[in-house]
């Protein structure tokens, strides 16, 4: 097959002595046996997306390897020396259970240390939220996590955190990317200064666990805790290093771990995808819950920032909640706790995202706090905390099964969120209710909102072009009507413009630019299209709602809303 000139130029660079012999051998082998794979490995440079940099491991500019991560780290080192000139620079590094995470973490540590930067490196795998906590706890200038979150086993990734414990946001992200792009691979300094690398573990663990318990527990009587039977699965990931300890420290004694999924394993052998957003991921946990008659199932993704939750419905059957449902139950509980403690003064806020449930806005209004809505990704909620120091942050989340309790961790945090959800379940059960009943009560008070997400995967160069074309079509040939409802407004976050068709008005969008398009229908339904920043996917988010007159009608109205979403999906040819 013919390989384009710009790809061959990159390949030839990687065949020079700057790169080790094994890398060169792998490339030569690909040139003869897998030219298509060679093209995919080099046709572009791996880019920073919504959650840092994620990609398939292997050789090449479009892969995760010691050279692409080394270049990132060299660029970040150069940038930090400029921005924090004269300061003694410090970074913290953590990694998850993925293949090569520990060796790649050491490469990153080596490059930082070679540039005279003090490194705190976890001696073994740890949850991502613990790294966010550590950055602030040790007064670091930055932090790195080697993780690909819930992506398939062949992936790894590199997340960058800044001084505040949140992920990179503008303007630092663009400035750092520019610094990285200015480098040659020959500029990377891999020669470690071992005296600058300090291994950290139990001292930080205990501070993190203690902080989590202080932050996410709310005067639940011990009897109520003893009476809650919990099933927990780490899905072969890092949360096993924290969650059992945190639940134990908080007084939860009846915690039953799915043994087959306890051990960290980068192959994730018992699941198709280690993602609690996928119902299949919690199959084994649900089976154990039914066997021992548990009240609640909780599970986490490999780096322990997302959580999945299942609770018993009114008939006693285990039911998986979606990310929006867990988010509103947790937020409503936190708001109620703050209100009872007399801590709501109008100087507080909760956080959400443009693709999450509108019910968060209703909750904020009902409790007299602000709801700040940002782009997808917890880095934007962390940025709100930094940008509005005069406001106290109560909690916030997004539809993708992530939640943040308070501001001690500045990223989605399944460790604190699981403790919080157990607190809610224990208190509800003790008062003759249930977590599911609490969700129904919210729907009676505010209307029943139902959200749904579909992800369409399109791999490789052709897939990237198909995704691009879908967004172009939605922009240039906008739908006028969907499922019998008129489109009344379209917001385009790429152009920062919105169009209100009812009043024939255009308006500006003040949220930072992003490749996101939102359609609003006349009945209040909302449809959002967004290409993923870290995976070869385009995501469509749907939100519909209806009034709920009484709790008994919850499932009937929920079914009507599910049918409405199915009709919208069919009409948009997204099946």
Please name the CATH topology of the largest domain.
Answer: Alpha-D-Glucose-1,6-Bisphosphate, Chain A, domain 3
Could you give the distance between the termini? 34 Å
- Please tell me the CATH architecture of the largest domain by its name: 3-Layer(aba) Sandwich
Name the CATH superfamily classification of the largest domain: Alpha-D-Glucose-1,6-Bisphosphate, subunit A, domain 3
Q: Report helical residue fraction.
A: 25-40%
Tally of individual helices: 18
Give the overall average pLDDT: 95
* Global geometry: globular
Radius of gyration: 24 Å
Q: By helix and strand content, what is the structural category?
A: alpha/beta
Low-confidence stretches: none
Number of domains: 3
Could you give a short account of the major beta sheet?
8 strands, antiparallel
Strand content: 15-25%
The CATH class of the largest domain is identified as Alpha Beta
Number of strands: 23
Which terms summarize this structure?
575 residues; alpha/beta; Alpha-D-Glucose-1,6-Bisphosphate, Chain A, domain 3; TATA-Binding Protein; six-stranded mixed beta sheet; 18 helices; 23 strands; 38% helix; 22% strand; globular
What does this structure look like?
It is a single chain. This protein is of the alpha/beta class and 575 residues long. It has three domains: 44-200, Alpha-D-Glucose-1,6-Bisphosphate, Chain A, domain 3, CATH 3.40.120; 210-442, Alpha-D-Glucose-1,6-Bisphosphate, Chain A, domain 3 (3-Layer(aba) Sandwich); 448-571, TATA-Binding Protein, CATH 3.30.310. It is built from 18 helices and 23 strands. The strands form four sheets. Strands 16, 17, 18, 19, 20, 21, 22 and 23 form an eight-stranded antiparallel sheet that branches. A six-stranded mixed sheet has the order 1-5-4-2-3-6, with helices on both faces. Strands 8-7-9-10-11 form a five-stranded mixed sheet, sandwiched between helices. Helix 4 (66-83) runs parallel beside helix 5 and helix 12 (323-340) packs parallel to helix 13 (359-367). The longest helix has 18 residues, at 66-83. The radius of gyration is 24 Å and the shape is globular. It starts with a helix and ends with a helix.
């Amino acid at each position: 097959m013919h390989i384009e000139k710009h790809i061959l130029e990159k390949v030839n660079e990687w065949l020079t002595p700057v790169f080790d012999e094994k890398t060169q051998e792998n490339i030569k082998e690909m040139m003869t046996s897998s030219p298509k794979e060679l093209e995919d490995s080099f046709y572009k440079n791996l880019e920073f997306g919504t959650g840092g940099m994620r990609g398939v491991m292997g050789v090449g500019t479009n892969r995760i390897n010691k050279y692409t991560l080394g270049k990132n780290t060299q660029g970040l080192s150069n940038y930090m020396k400029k921005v924090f000139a004269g300061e003694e620079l410090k970074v913290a590094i953590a990694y998850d259970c993925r293949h090569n995470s520990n060796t790649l973490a050491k490469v990153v540590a080596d490059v930082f240390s070679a540039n005279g930067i003090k490194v705190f490196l976890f001696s073994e795998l740890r949850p991502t939220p613990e790294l966010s906590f550590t950055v602030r706890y040790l007064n670091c200038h930055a932090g790195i996590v080697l993780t690909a979150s819930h992506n398939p086993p062949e992936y790894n990734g590199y997340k960058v955190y800044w001084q505040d414990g949140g992920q990179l946001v503008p303007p630092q992200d663009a400035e750092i990317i520019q610094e990285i792009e200015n480098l040659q691979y020959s500029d990377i300094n891999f020669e470690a200064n071992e005296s600058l690398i300090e291994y950290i573990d139990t001292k930080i663990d205990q501070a993190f666990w203690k902080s989590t318990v202080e932050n996410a527990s709310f005067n639940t009587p011990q009897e109520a805790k003893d009476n809650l039977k919990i099933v927990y699965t780490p899905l072969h990931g890092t949360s096993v290093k924290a969650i059992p300890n945190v639940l134990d420290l908080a007084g939860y004694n009846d915690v039953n771990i799915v043994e087959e999924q306890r051990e960290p394993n980068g192959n994730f052998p018992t699941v198709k995808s280690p993602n609690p957003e996928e119902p299949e991921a919690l199959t084994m946990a649900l089976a154990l819950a039914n066997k021992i008659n548990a009240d609640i199932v909780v599970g986490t993704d490999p780096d322990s920032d997302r959580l999945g939750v299942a609770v018993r419905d009114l008939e006693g059957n285990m039911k998986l909640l979606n990310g929006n449902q867990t988010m509103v139950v947790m937020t409503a509980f936190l708001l109620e706790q703050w209100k009872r403690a007399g801590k709501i003064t109008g100087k507080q806020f909760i956080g959400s995202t443009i693709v999450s449930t509108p019910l968060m806005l209703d909750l904020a209004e009902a409790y007299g706090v602000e709801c700040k809505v940002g782009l997808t990704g917890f880095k934007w909620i962390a940025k709100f905390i930094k940008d509005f120091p005069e406001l106290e942050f109560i909690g916030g989340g997004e539809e993708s099964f992530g939640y943040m309790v308070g501001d001690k961790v500045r990223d989605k945090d399944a460790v604190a969120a699981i403790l919080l959800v157990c607190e809610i379940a224990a208190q509800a059960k003790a008062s003759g209710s249930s977590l599911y009943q609490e969700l129904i009560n919210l729907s009676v008070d505010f209307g029943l909102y139902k959200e749904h997400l579909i992800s369409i995967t399109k791999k490789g160069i052709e897939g990237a072009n198909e995704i691009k074309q879908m967004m172009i079509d939605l922009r240039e040939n906008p739908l006028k009507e969907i499922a019998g409802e008129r489109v009344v407004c379209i917001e385009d976050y790429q152009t920062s413009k919105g169009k209100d068709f009812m009043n024939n008005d255009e308006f500006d969008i003040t949220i930072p630019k992003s490749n996101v398009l939102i359609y609003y229908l006349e009945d209040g339904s909302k449809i959002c299209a967004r290409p993923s920043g870290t995976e070869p996917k385009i995501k469509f988010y749907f939100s519909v709602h209806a009034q709920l007159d009484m709790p008994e009608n919850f499932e009937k109205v929920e079914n009507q809303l599910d049918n409405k979403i199915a009709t919208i999906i069919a009409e948009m040819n997204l099946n």
